[in-house]
Amino acid sequence: MKRLLSIEFQKLWSNRASRILILSYFILLSFIALIASIKFTLFGVEFHLANMGIFNFPYIWHLNTFIAALGKMFLAVVIVSMMANEYTYGTLKQNLIDGLSKEEFIRSKFLMVFAFSLASTVFVFLMSLMLGYGFSSYDEASIVFSELEYVAGFFLKLMAFFSFCLFVGILIKRSAFALGFVAVWYLLEKLAQLLTGISTGEFDSEHTWVQFLPMESMSNLLWEPMSRLSAYKTLEAQVSGNATYDIYGIHWYEYVVVAAWTVFFMLMSYRILKKRDL
User: pTM of the prediction?
Assistant: First the structure.
């Protein structure tokens, strides 16, 4: 395992574009902390976001993981480019000639996906912990460490998405076309959701078959968190007279669906590589 990870890290770190993207990703994640310094005046009243409850435990787990997940495309580009470079520069063939089996090659890529997902999760967890203890109104352990399912959901979402990108990278071989395929697939799922909503009157994918599609099932792990803020609910109640929209926790079957897609993408990646004439 250590040898396979070492091989992958050497490949990535020797590529200047990959280094820049990886560093940019983690720098952007750290920018979440800058939200604490945002102040603005509205109708003569000064608002400080850090004092509005957005960094309260346990809400911060939901907010920070949702925001951090938006930056996942940085590492997606790294993963897709990583696979494209294997074909472009012949490193895949050279690795196989040097004695690396196809199974070991896929395992090394899976370990890299796991490492990216774990590093991102640990980074967001520690940053959220520091911001929470700095600004949260609650510091009881029972509250601080509740709702950690959002952290687990964040990790699994990254694992599934990066596995999907790896699968597409192996399937298509060219990074630009592979990233285009990911974007088109996302739009197709949204179109399926729209058409299903028009035909059934139910536009919430959580209650239709669309929830089982790969990208949509990943999205369902982390719903948008803003409607959980009491200020938002109060405003919604004043405007509509009925604040019914709520955010629910992650259901066990949503974990299972996303985990199943992760396994599927990794197995299909291995199957394609095993049958392909390199």
Answer: 0.87
